Automatic annotation (TrEMBL):
Domain Zinc finger CGNR: residue ranges: 119-161
UniProt-recorded name of the protein: Zinc finger CGNR domain-containing protein
SUPFAM superfamilies: Jann2411-like
InterPro entries linked to this entry: ABATE, ABATE_dom_sf, Znf_CGNR
Length: 169
C-alpha cells in the first residue's frame, strides 16, 4: 500500500451519492472524524482545504485538467524541507496547518500516479461517485465495490440481454 493511500480514498470518497442525491462528508462531525482519523484537527479551514483538494482531484481523475489551477493555488504555500540525519536525507512536508492534510492527499495522489499509473479511477457505475485504486494484477477493476456497484451493473446488463433476446422470439 502506498503511503496515505487510505487518506486519499477517504477524501475522494467523501461525497458519495445516496439514491442519486449527492452527500457531503467533509462537513460537521463526520468531516471532523475523517480529518482526526488521519492526524488532522478537523477545523473549518482544514475541511475547506480538503474539499478543494477532493473536488480538484475528482475533476482531474475524470479528465478535467482545469482543476490544476485550484490545486496549484491550494499548494502554493506547501514546500518540502530536507532534514539531514546520520542515515540520509528525509524530506518532510511543510505547509500551513489548514493545508497540511490536503497537501498529504495530493502527495498520495501523486505517488499513486507514479507507482500505479492509470489505476486510480472513478467507479464505472455512472450513478456512483466513488473512486478506487486498482490493485488487481491485470488492472481491470471497474467498480468501487463488486458487492454493490459491480453486482448492480452486471444485473442490469443481464436484464438488458434478456430483454433483447426475448424480443427476438
Amino acid at each position: 500500500m502506498i503511503e496515505d493511500e487510505e487518506l486519499l480514498l477517504d477524501v475522494l470518497n467523501s461525497a458519495p451519492r445516496d439514491g442519486g442525491e449527492p452527500m457531503e462528508y467533509l462537513h460537521g462531525q463526520r468531516g471532523v472524524d475523517l480529518a482526526r482519523a488521519h492526524g488532522g484537527s478537523g477545523d473549518d479551514a482544514e475541511l475547506r482545504c480538503l474539499r478543494i483538494a477532493r473536488d480538484g482531484l475528482q475533476d482531474l481523475i475524470r479528465g478535467n485538467e482545469v482543476a490544476v489551477e485550484s490545486l496549484q493555488e491550494l499548494m502554493s504555500e506547501a514546500t518540502m524541507r530536507a532534514d539531514v540525519t546520520p542515515s540520509g536525507v528525509e524530506w518532510k512536508l511543510s505547509a500551513p496547518s489548514d493545508v497540511q492534510l490536503a497537501a498529504r492527499v495530493l502527495q498520495a495522489w501523486s505517488r499513486v500516479n507514479e507507482h500505479l499509473p492509470g489505476r486510480l479511477r472513478a467507479c464505472a457505475n455512472t450513478e456512483c461517485n466513488l473512486y478506487l485504486i486498482d490493485h488487481t494484477r491485470p488492472g481491470t477493476a471497474k467498480w468501487c465495490s463488486m458487492a454493490t456497484c459491480g453486482n448492480r451493473m452486471k444485473a442490469r446488463a443481464h436484464a438488458a440481454r434478456t430483454r433483447r433476446s426475448g424480443s427476438r422470439n
